[in-house]
Amino acid sequence: MIRPYCDKWNLKVNLTKTKIIVFGTNKPKQFSFKFGNESIEIISKYKYLGVVFASTGSYIHAKKHLIEQANKALFYIYARVQNLDIPFDLLLELFDNTVTPILCYRSEIWGYENSTSIEQVHLAFLRKITKTRKSTPSYMLYGKTGRYPLHI
Questions:
Q1: What is the pTM assigned to this prediction?
Q2: Closest by CA position to 91, among listed 121, 130, 119
Q3: Segments making up each domain of the chain, as ranges
């Protein structure tokens, strides 16, 4: 169906970039997709516009990718502010303006799922800047810093 349309309008399809994800089955190999005479590869996960989609329908891989990106940004922040005496409120603003957008990227897609792993990055940051132990309960961190969990 799509091949005649592409031929009619002189559209080129890059089959090395074209992939298929079959959602909701654990047997994707039972399907085959072709564009003309060429087969299109079936894959189990694919990154599209920065969001990792998986054939299971879960967004665990998407959140894992966001956490990796956020941790890179945090590492860069820590490296830059390590020897500076930056006020507490400015550190929070730095987090809100650089890391929060990464952690919340496309949350309208994956946000209905459990976001505990995303919040762990936020809590680790709060623990670091307040110099509190890992055993300090989350609610105490939120109270001490005047913050709320990111999902709120």
A1: 0.77
A2: 130
A3: 2-43, 59-145
